């Protein structure tokens, strides 16, 4: 079984500039699901992990380079995640590789990434003009970052900080830009913004903020942080519906944006100002 210890993450790696799909390294989700008491058969959510690549380039048959922005949608129930450094190295391997059209590149990306993730991955290759026209977006709902809280323990997430009133059923959309955790392999910080949308017991926004800040020194991957937040809120709120998603700041030209929801629809992949 592949594990993160055998991945290129945190290790010195050779820069390979010609197409090398073997660089992609899958990591089974099952281990992290098990830590949360889940399995592939018992996932209480649906969703997607949006990856955006801002350093996508290849060569035309004439030798002229092209630059673009890549968007990759990996199903949240895929058997594997794709280790981020291996993803970066794979994308680098396209830099001196020839593709006649963006469509030809997209087809290769979908084939390779789907094989690694274990489920179909959807790919968009956007020109810089297309991305500029889409622009930036703001998160929905109320920002809770100006609320007063007191917290001194950042070693691990503290779901006991969450407080709600089950006698009041409300619909709320809340967001915070204060999410931070650490990569479990390199120890590097991962900065993110998180959105919570639900109908259920009235959640105290200050308690949500304190809970999110408690992730500050927690070591885990983006996907697992969002899944943990989803499960803790689901247990606390007993909601009719619940959506939790995070938009993370990019590292190495890639950002990762996990969405988890009980609803059928998944929010669009729209970039924030820090991305």
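^ structure tokens above, recovered residues below v
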């Amino acid at each position: 079984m592949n594990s993160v210890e055998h991945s290129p993450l945190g290790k010195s790696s050779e820069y390979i500039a010609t197409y090398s799909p073997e660089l992609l390294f899958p990591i089974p989700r099952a281990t992290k699901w098990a830590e949360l008491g889940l399995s592939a058969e018992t996932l209480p959510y649906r969703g997607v992990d949006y990856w955006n690549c801002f350093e996508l380039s290849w060569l035309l048959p004439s030798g002229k380079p092209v630059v673009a922005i890549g968007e990759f949608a990996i199903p949240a129930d895929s058997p594997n995640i794709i280790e981020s450094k291996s993803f970066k190295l794979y994308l680098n391997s396209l830099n001196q590789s020839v593709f006649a059209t963006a469509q030809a590149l997209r087809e290769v990306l979908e084939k390779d990434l789907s094989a690694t993730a274990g489920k179909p991955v959807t790919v968009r290759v956007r020109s810089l003009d297309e991305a500029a026209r889409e622009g930036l977006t703001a998160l929905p709902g109320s920002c809770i970052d100006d609320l007063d809280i007191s917290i001194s323990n950042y070693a691990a997430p503290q779901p006991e900080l969450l407080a709600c009133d089950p006698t009041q059923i409300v619909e709320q959309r809340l967001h915070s830009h204060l999410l931070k955790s650490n990569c479990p392999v390199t120890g590097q910080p991962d900065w993110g913004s998180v959105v919570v949308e639900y109908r259920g017991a009235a959640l105290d926004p200050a308690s949500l903020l304190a809970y999110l800040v408690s992730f500050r020194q927690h070591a885990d991957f983006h996907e697992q942080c969002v899944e943990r937040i989803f499960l803790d809120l689901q247990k606390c709120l007993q909601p009719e519906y619940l959506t939790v998603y995070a938009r993370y700041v990019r590292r190495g030209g890639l950002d990762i944006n996990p969405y988890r929801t009980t609803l059928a629809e998944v929010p669009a992949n729209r970039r924030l100002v820090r991305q």
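The first strand starts at residue 26 and ends at 28.
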